[in-house]
Amino acid sequence: MEEQAQYIENYIHEAEEGKVHLSENQIKQLHNQAEYLHQHAGHEAAHGRMGLIIIVSLVAFQFVLLYWKKHHYRSYQGITTIGLWVLPFLLALQSKWHQFAAFWILFSILNSWIIYKATRKPLHHLTPKLVYKWFWIVYQVSYVTGLIGYFMMFLTFMGFGAQETKEGQDPVTPGLVYWGLTFLCYGIYFGILGRDFVEFCTESMASTLGYYTKEGFPRKHLRLGVCAICGNHVSNAISTIDAHGQLQAPVVLQPSPNGAPVEPSIKLNCGHEFHEECIRGWCLIGKKDMCPYCKEKVDLRAFKINPWDTTQHLYLNLLDALRYMIVWQPVIMGVVQFGFNISGLE
Questions:
Q1: Three-state DSSP class for residue 23
Q2: Contact 230, 122 (CB under 8 A)
Q3: Distances in whole angstroms, Cα of residue 2 to Cα of each of 6, 27, 48, 142, 206
Q4: Beta-strand (E) ranges in the chain?
């Protein structure tokens, strides 16, 4: 490190003599880097201990989180959701990210109203459709926003929007990069947040109606022709799922009076019938792959109308994986820093 520091100091000396054109900010950064190298010269052994602390912390946290999630899923999911909701907002306030804070407040107000509706007892029969409609909009907006951000970042990597920097000037971040990262981060964050809240609302609404319990038997018996998700009677236009997981065309058993439009329904392989909008919301938006009443597995291929549905389902799985990085990664880094402090490492 001493050799690297000496090289940087020689480079700074050439800049001060006018042989190399550097801005004052660049020279200051080089001074800081040289000072850092001087301070950490001969600390290779300490760096090895730091690396060991990081590896042990990552491995240990993985086992702790997996055990917690497996044996106490509700508390794990609840704390994860609260952390995902609150921590980024506190960071935005500290860093004065007013734009993000404004979007967060608007989303929180609307989302809190939806949660309020989903947790009322007795549950209004239109609430499940309202809840799934809201989270479907959140998902679609976050999906499109993330795609726009990704496309803007891709254009940046292809050389579009790049700004030439004259010698001696500080580099400038292109506007395309800034907005690309902004759109991408907004899409991912609010997409993940919506996924967590819709799971809570889904189980709350189903438990309130009494036709669903996470474990054991439901409190109420499901009568023939009743949708276990909203509690209303299903229509006479019923679709079925064949052996290949394909949704068949609806069969109208009895025409509706006065020619009123009929809400299509779906009969699962287990024999239970649901409104198509309800069961799609339960499976695709609510992250459930089973019948809400008997818990028999549902073939999700039946609800994927076009190739975009398959792509979006993969995107939903990606959001679930990124939740760990947003919530628990800062906690792990805090534990690592604590280990550094008690070990006398910097």
A1: coil
A2: no
A3: 6, 18, 18, 49, 66
A4: 237-240, 251-252, 265-267, 273-275
- Model pTM? 0.67
More confident position, 60 or 286: 60
| Locus of tokens 């880097």 | 33
Q: What's the average model confidence in pLDDT over 14-26?
A: 74
Query: What's phi and psi for 119, nearest 5 deg?
Result: -105, 5
Amino acid residing at 27: I
* Pair type for strands 265-267 and 251-252: unpaired
Beta carbons of 268 and 224 less than 8 angstroms apart: no
Under a CB-based contact definition with an 8 Å cutoff, are residues 170 and 22 in contact? no
In whole angstroms, give the CA distance from residue 179 to residue 150: 10
Q: Which amino acid is at 23?
A: S
Residue 194 identity (one-letter amino acid): G
* Cα–Cα distance, 307 to 315 (Å, whole number): 13
| Closest CA relative to residue 182, chosen from 158, 160, 149, 159 | 149
- Which among 15, 65, 11 is positioned nearest to 33, based on CA atoms? 11
Q: Does pLDDT of 319 surpass 70? A: no
Neighbours of 34 (CB within 10 A): 20
